[in-house]
Amino acid sequence: MRNDPPLVLGIGASSGVSASAVLSALLGAETLLGRGEGFRAVATLDRRAEEPGLVAALRQYGARGRRGEPPLCSLTAAELAGVAVPNPGSAAGDSVGTPSVAEAAALVVARGLGAGEGRLVLAKRVFSGVTVAAAEAGASS
What we know:
The structure is a single chain. This protein is an alpha/beta fold. 37% of the residues lie in helices and 26% in strands. It has five helices and five strands. It has a five-stranded mixed sheet. A hairpin with a 2-residue loop joins strand 4 and strand 5.
């Protein structure tokens, strides 16, 4: 059994996103990463944290895995705006006040889980209209 660092999935989605779209994105990211342990946490913009589709998808995702439902961490646009990311987008900046939600949220929460800097292991991808990115918690050097 591998001892991989914990993974955090960042999610960017529009208001009214469906549970099926979010679940498709979660499973798509998990497949691309090829690591079966799932996500330690999910992170998103604070104004999306109570979206019924997101909450329902996390519950469904948790029911499928060994770890249960991953905690949902919410971050403000100001917290995300200060994070350097490889793929900032003007659409997110114009609509929510930060050039990155998925990548920045994944990195911020991954840093909080590890002893060092988080590392982006999946650059932002879009599945079913939901943007996701994944970061792993860093280890101290």
